[in-house]
Specification:
Layout: H1 15-26, H2 30-49, E1 54-56, E2 60-67, E3 70-73, E4 80-83, E5 86-93, H3 95-107
Antiparallel strand pairs: 1-2, 2-5, 3-4
Helix pairs in contact: 1-2
């Protein structure tokens, strides 16, 4: 399965496409492929919900960050608004991933 990069839209790799790739490249049946992809994302999601960072060697780190409450402003009305404290997920690509992406762009 090849992704078209010429499109004006940003191409996205979906869970269904990942499952199809497992089917094509590894030989798992389609049901096993879908179940494996779902299980992987469930594990990542559960870890992040519990506040545990997820580190995937050679790919990057997903981290939970707690943002403090702060004053904000409604951009439409200019009215001050309180922004509540919240937890957000951040992703930091590994140096290896950054290098591969950069090489693909330059070496294209």
């Amino acid at each position: 399965m090849e992704l078209a990069v010429e499109s004006l839209e940003t191409p996205a790799l979906t869970k269904a496409q990942l499952a199809e790739l497992l089917f094509d490249r590894i030989g798992l049946n389609k049901r096993e492929s879908k179940d494996m992809i779902d299980a992987f994302f469930d594990l990542v999601t559960d870890s992040l919900v519990q506040g545990t960072d997820v580190k995937i060697s050679g790919f990057g780190n997903f981290q939970i960050r707690t943002k403090a409450p702060r004053p904000g402003r409604n951009p439409r009305t200019g009215e001050p608004v309180a922004i509540e404290a919240r937890r957000v997920v951040t992703f930091h690509a590994s140096p290896k991933l950054k290098e591969q992406v950069q090489t693909a762009i330059i070496g294209g």
